[in-house]
Design goal:
Largest sheet of chain A: none
Largest sheet of chain B: 4 strands, mixed
Number of strands of chain B: 11
Helix content of chain A: 55-70%
Strand content of chain A: under 5%
Distance between the termini of chain A: 70 Å
Distance between the termini of chain B: 18 Å
Radius of gyration of chain A: 21 Å
Structural class of chain B: mainly alpha
Number of strands of chain A: 0
Oligomer: heterodimer
Largest interface: A-B, 23 and 25 residues
Order of helices and strands of chain A: HHHHH
Chain lengths: ~150, ~775
């Protein structure tokens, strides 16, 4: 296996790890459209009252496992690829690359495993609280026109 | 307080005529759809004419400059027959089309013969040898008056060398190359086969009359004969990017401007989903339990032979010590893998159509409908088993002159013999007739632009478009046969199955009360417009290098970019699907029974965007396709699009129906969840850990070295390739063990449980939901009544 291929596979594994981290962050946020802070403006204009959201409401109940599961697969894929690269190419300075990626993959998997055990994530609860606060804001229509 | 209002059943008094319901949508939608579709069809006919008039000619004889006959036109045609009936398109490829284990025989012959010619002129260090080699291959010495093609002496001398090479490859006593030992023994056939490869290599390098590029738009890249990307290949790649960006922007603008586009829930309606076991089933619906069992069995078989095919790429020598190539060589397992992918998905689609009709009409089956459903399943089973056995027997030389009728027809995806192909077409037509019997009275009360008619049209289009594949003939030139082959591989699969999919999903949502009929109709017509704008003419992206002129390449590149645009919106649609289910569940006092069917629809959206959209567009640009056609990137697109979209959809349909067929105490959400996650993770693993990185390495190798080299066994058996092939194993095990087996078990439960399900009786209600007070007077239900 050439050095070039080792670099390419290591860089690709690193991208997979980045995807895993991003998905993990997304999975910790609330997906309720009414609790999401991105819809605060919409909420104020429409006055649509949010329905109470529990963590076991489907499909929101699937969100942590959806994102967390895909993130774990991506991290596992990154680890497996870098380990296999290391097995085939473990001499020379370039071998340090898959070794580093392998270490990062293990760390990432440990972190993901811990966050899955901690469901619901604190971030989700915080988002829900923010959503509830947003719902309490006065409607745009109630404000005096300037 | 709200009172429960049962939606009234359809009027049953035969004396009172049912008034015909008018168009639900504006007539402009139909007119615009028809205009765009007809424009697309006109483009397709135009490209057909160009294909028939501009394909590379097959000379009557090929002679050397000394006047000796090297081979004849009859040899070329007989060679094509040898290629097809031995299933070599499921081993390697020709003009870039086919399987990925063996070489691309066009590129292979071109490179090897050019190397021989250059050696004859003095070797690679000689400038004059390089120049003379280029001249020999690029100069078109075909005389249309005498139908004679002249090879240089060096080209003629290379021919017997190549005959010996292909004899070594295909008559190998050990096998170990993916084919069975002594796959082709007859020296006459081996010579004819080499003639066919020689002709394809000539077409790939000889310049078209009056042009500066070859019949294949200079494909494959081969420095020895100065085959480099043409101006059209580069320019139309750039323009297709512009088409994609411009089209995506326009559609985003349209969605921003008209917020009624896309899927929208029925916000103001409150529903109570009926317990699945409370919904009565007709005999034809009960028969579909067996369809889904057959579907799951075929799915399992497809994945097992797929695993065997994959093993050949990881280890050519044996299957864990078993000499599998003696009984099930690569071309057989690959043929079955490809054929079964269409057959199990089709089985699910046929069953879903039958299952849905009584829900649409909310009436009992017409007399004998259940028996007809069993007859259809029996016929389908005969076609599946007969065609698969015929393919093996055909490859082994059975059937004599009838090989293309009963044996291996040999065109990738249309491998089954013509006889079986005709039977399959008749079976689909029979299925449409069944749907017509069920829908007949309902259709009489509907305007031809409404949902029931669209359901019928979409079903009718399936046998009609599939029948175009019957026009492939082993006696035509490859360019012409490829035109008809892609009527099935592209137009049928990617456009008309897509249309049927949209109509089915829309109708299911309407029947569940999740979306209004008007919203569903808008989505369907928008789908027709978008896919007709890109998908029909876009079929030509498969013909870039198969012998069609540059004008076909330009149309294919530009219009197929539009195909990706609706797919980008599926990322939005996927989330809408979930919310549609969730929103109704939150309002209903009874649980939404189709969580996992909806989750599979979400997966369809995801893979449609990623597999068909992103990975498809990646290889759609002519400049990328020039270097990658027939590599792992093609396999990456094929798997993520075919399984990711149609496979997931077939599973979604089966879960939708099984939810009614399996008794309550036997239904398991856990099994459905396991299957969902295992299928999706397994597919993602296959793509991201194996096919995508391998494809990128192979593409790099193709650009850096040569296409010939990137497709050679030496590359496929290299350490990085084998590593990435072996890395696929865990994902495949998960896919089969965790994904397919639970589905098979659920299908068994469906067959066992259907006897316990109550039959439809006079007065039984086939409605899937009941409505709790609706204040919107314009709402029309699926059955056409105001609610």
């Amino acid at each position: 296996m050439s050095d070039q291929v080792v670099v390419l596979l290591s860089a690709y594994s690193l991208v997979l790890l980045g995807v895993a981290q991003g998905l993990q962050a997304l999975g910790r946020r609330s997906t309720s459209p009414w609790a999401s802070r991105t819809l605060v403006g919409h909420l104020r204009v429409t006055g649509h009252q949010p329905q109470p959201l529990r963590d076991d409401d489907w499909p929101h109940s699937e969100v942590p496992s959806l994102y967390g599961g895909i993130a774990m697969v991506a991290a596992l894929a990154a680890g497996a690829l870098s380990l296999a690269t290391l097995v085939l190419h473990h001499r020379g300075a370039v071998a340090a690359l898959p070794l580093v990626v392998l270490g990062l993959s293990v760390l990432s998997l440990l972190r993901l495993g811990r966050s899955v055990r901690l469901r619901p994530a604190p971030g989700r609860q915080r988002d829900q609280a923010a959503g509830a606060a947003a719902a309490a804001l006065p409607l745009e229509a109630d404000r005096p026109l300037r | 307080m709200t009172a429960t209002l049962e939606v009234p059943a359809e009027p049953t008094d035969p004396v009172v005529p049912v008034p015909k319901r008018g168009l639900v949508l504006s007539r402009a939608w139909i007119q615009l759809s028809a205009l765009v579709a007809l424009t697309g069809l006109f483009g397709l006919v135009l490209m057909g004419w160009l294909t028939y008039t501009s394909d590379p000619p097959i000379p009557q004889r090929v002679v050397s400059t000394a006047g000796t006959v090297v081979f004849t036109g009859s040899d070329i045609r007989a060679g094509q027959d040898v290629f097809l009936k031995n299933g070599l398109m499921e081993y390697g490829s020709i003009f870039g089309h086919g399987a990925y284990l063996g070489p691309d025989f066009t590129a292979d012959y071109l490179h090897r013969s050019a190397t021989e010619v250059m050696a004859a002129y003095g070797g690679p260090r000689s400038d004059s040898a390089a120049r003379r080699t280029r001249e020999d291959f690029r100069t078109n010495r075909y005389d249309p008056r005498t139908h004679s093609l002249t090879f240089s002496a060096a080209q003629a001398a290379a021919f017997p060398v190549l005959v010996a090479h292909y004899t070594t490859l295909l008559d190998s006593p050990d096998g170990r190359n993916g084919l069975r030992p002594h796959a082709i023994k007859d020296p006459v056939q081996l010579r004819q086969l080499t003639s066919y490869f020689a002709w394809s290599a000539w077409a790939a390098a000889a310049e078209r009359p009056g042009k500066r590029y070859s019949y294949t738009n200079n494909w494959p890249g081969e420095p020895l004969v100065a085959n480099t990307p043409t101006g059209d290949v580069v320019v139309w790649s750039v323009l297709s990017l512009i088409a994609l960006l411009g089209g995506t922007g326009a559609l985003f603008a349209a969605f921003g401007r008209w917020n009624w586009l896309g899927w929208h829930g029925r916000d103001q309606r409150e529903l109570r989903f009926r317990e699945p076991q409370a919904v009565a089933l007709t005999p034809s619906q009960r028969a579909t339990a067996w369809f889904f069992l057959v579907m799951a069995g075929l799915f399992l078989a497809q994945t097992l032979v797929g695993a065997a095919a994959e093993h050949y790429r990881a280890d050519l020598t044996s299957f864990f010590g078993i000499p599998l190539d003696r009984w099930l060589p690569y071309n057989v397992v690959r043929t079955w893998h490809v054929q079964l992918s269409l057959l199990w998905v089709s089985t699910s689609f046929l069953a879903a159509g039958i299952f849905l009709v009584p829900m649409i009409t909310r009436k009992k089956d017409p007399k004998g409908q259940g028996v007809l459903a069993y007859a259809l399943l029996g016929a389908l089973t005969v076609v599946v088993v007969g065609s698969m056995l015929g393919e093996v027997a055909g490859i082994r030389g059975a059937f004599g002159g009838m090989w293309s009728w009963f044996g291996m027809q040999g065109f990738e995806y249309l491998d089954l013999g013509k006889f079986w192909q005709v039977l399959l077409t008749i079976g689909m037509a029979f299925w449409v007739l069944m749907l017509w019997r069920g829908l007949r009275k309902r259709l009489a009360t509907e305007s031809p632009g409404n949902l029931p008619w669209l359901f019928f049209y979409a079903a009718l289009a399936l046998p009609v478009v599939y029948s175009a594949g019957l026009l492939t003939s082993h006696g035509d030139t490859y360019t012409v046969t490829d035109f008809w082959r892609f009527m099935v591989v592209h137009l049928w699969v990617e456009d008309f199955l897509e249309l049927f999919t949209t109509v089915m999903v829309a109708y299911i949502f309407v029947l569940l009360g999740v979306v209004r009929e008007k919203v569903a109709l808008r989505v369907i017509f928008l789908d027709i417009i978008l896919y007709s704008a890109g998908g029909v003419i876009g079929t030509a992206h498969h013909w870039y290098f198969s012998g069609t002129p540059a004008s076909v390449l330009s149309m294919g590149a530009f219009f197929s970019a539009f195909e990706v645009i609706p797919l980008t919106f599926l990322t939005i649609e996927a989330w809408s699907f979930i919310r549609l289910g969730a929103r109704q569940e939150s309002r209903s006092t009874t649980p939404f029974p189709h969580r996992w069917a909806v989750m599979f629809l979400v997966a369809v959206g995801f893979w449609n965007f990623l597999g068909a959209g992103v990975f498809g567009f990646l290889i759609n640009l002519p400049i990328v396709s020039y270097y990658e056609i027939g590599t792992a990137l093609t396999a990456n697109h094929a798997h993520t699009a075919m399984m990711g979209v149609y496979g997931m959809l077939a599973v979604a349909f089966s879960l939708f129906a099984l939810r009614y067929l399996i008794p309550k105490d036997k239904w398991s959400d856990r099994l459905a969840r396991t299957s969902f996650w295992s299928l999706n993770i397994g597919l993602a693993w296959m793509s991201f850990v194996s096919l995508l990185p391998l494809g990128v390495l192979q593409l790099y190798h193709s650009v850096e070295h040569s296409y010939f080299d990137a497709r050679s066994l030496s590359f496929i058996t290299s350490d990085p390739s084998r590593l990435l092939e072996w890395m696929r194993l865990p994902g495949d095990v998960l896919f089969i063990g965790g994904g397919v087996l639970p589905l098979l078990w659920m299908a068994v439960q469906g067959v066992l449980g259907v006897a316990r399900h109550r039959e439809v009786l006079p007065g039984s209600d086939l409605q899937l939901f009941t409505e709790v007070a609706d204040h919107d007077p314009e709402v029309a239900t699926a059955s056409g009544q105001l609610s």
